[in-house]
Specification:
By secondary structure, the chain is mainly α. It has 6 helices and no strands. The longest helix has 28 residues.
């Protein structure tokens, strides 16, 4: 089970990286792009060109995060805990929900008009790491 859980964490990290790439590229290509994007990159650089470095960065970061979360799931003994809401481990699901909502208030302060991206990314995080990773790790 441990190897499958680690592989599931890595796979969920890669899935999160793909979704993050779409979300961050969407933000970068918006007309009147966000101020924090303009501070880092020249305004003359087309937003679509940023998809490549965004993809590489999110791929590395989310893959590592997936491996760390899978390791924490194994080392914490969450697989033996009480299931809840269709997830193999209720405490793990609650922990992932808590982690997913931590950045939302800060991101909402950065840009209120993109609230749907922040909410969607949090829900995807809970779905991938709270439900899918433990379920795939059991198989």
């Amino acid at each position: 089970m441990n190897v499958y859980t680690i592989l599931a964490g890595w796979a969920m990290g890669n899935a999160m990286a793909i979704i993050s790439t779409f979300a961050l590229t969407y933000i970068a290509v918006q007309p009147g792009s966000q101020r924090f994007v303009q501070k880092v990159f020249d305004p003359e650089v087309p937003g679509w060109l940023l998809a490549v470095p965004i993809s590489i960065g999110t791929g590395v970061l989310w893959s590592m995060a997936g491996l760390v979360l899978a390791s924490a799931y194994i080392l914490g003994g969450f697989a033996e805990m009480t299931p809840a809401l269709g997830a193999p481990s209720g405490p793990w699901l609650l922990l992932m929900a808590a982690i997913a909502w931590l950045p939302v208030p800060i991101l909402w302060l950065i840009s209120r008009r993109l609230w749907w991206i922040w909410l969607g990314m949090s829900l995807v995080f809970v779905g991938l790491f709270g439900w899918a990773m433990p379920l795939l790790g059991e198989r």
